[in-house]
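Our preliminary data section would be incomplete without showing what the modeling component actually yields. Below, a chain of 116 amino acids is followed by its predicted structure, encoded as tokens that our downstream tools consume directly.
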Amino acid sequence: MFGVGAVLAAIPAALGAPVWVQAIVFGLGSGLSLAVLRPALRQHREARSDVISAGVEAIEGSVGLVLETVNAQRGMIKIGGEIWSARALDETQVIEEGEQVQVMKVDGATALVWRN
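Predicted structure:
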């Protein structure tokens, strides 16, 4: 924002205007650009934050491949190239190697999964 004010203040400086004129142009240019650009940049940033999910939010709902039998106590799955420890969300389910599962919830470093 100050860059816009500096560029605008360079114009009267190049024309030989006094420093006080340059300072006024700098202040007005910076303030105006701040008032106009900041809301637009904030809106753009907030809109993008809704699209990008990371961490647990990125894992929940994704589909994984069972690497080691998953039951109520333990198991291993692969999600997007990462290996996760897993447990079956339904304690009666036993999910065998090679089956696909959906991650329903993440509890610490363990994915709670459901047969897909």
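The chain has two domains: 2-51, 58-115. The mean pLDDT is 90. Preliminary results of this kind motivate Aim 1 of the renewal.
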